[in-house]
């Protein structure tokens, strides 16, 4: 995934091309549309997401706050 400067993903510390968003507390994402549907419905709210790192081979929980100007 790409991480744009000043985006909610960058603010949450996500790393481009090594971090992969796999789901949230209640949902395991099947595809990108599942992710975008969730993000669009949570603008301005804190969204906990599970992120897999190919560098560390671990899943971690990060909080992202989507906004309308998010480029990613």
UniProtKB/TrEMBL annotation:
Its GO CC terms are: Golgi membrane
Protein biosynthesis as a keyword of this entry, yes or no, is no
For this protein, the record's InterPro entries field holds: GRASP55_65, GRASP_PDZ, PDZ_sf
GO BP: any one term:
Golgi organization
Write out the annotated subcellular location: Golgi apparatus membrane
**Which UniProt key words apply to this protein?**
Golgi apparatus, Membrane, Repeat
Show where the PDZ GRASP-type domain sits: 1-72
Q: Name one Pfam family in it.
A: GRASP55_65
What protein name is recorded for this chain? PDZ GRASP-type domain-containing protein
What organism does the UniProt record list as the source? Arcella intermedia
């Amino acid at each position: 995934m790409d991480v744009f400067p000043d985006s909610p993903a960058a603010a949450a510390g996500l790393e481009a091309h090594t971090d992969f968003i796999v789901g949230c507390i209640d949902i395991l994402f099947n595809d990108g549309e599942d992710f975008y549907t969730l993000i669009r419905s949570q603008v301005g709210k804190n969204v906990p997401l599970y992120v897999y790192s190919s560098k560390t081979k671990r899943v971690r929980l990060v909080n992202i706050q989507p906004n309308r100007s998010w480029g990613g």
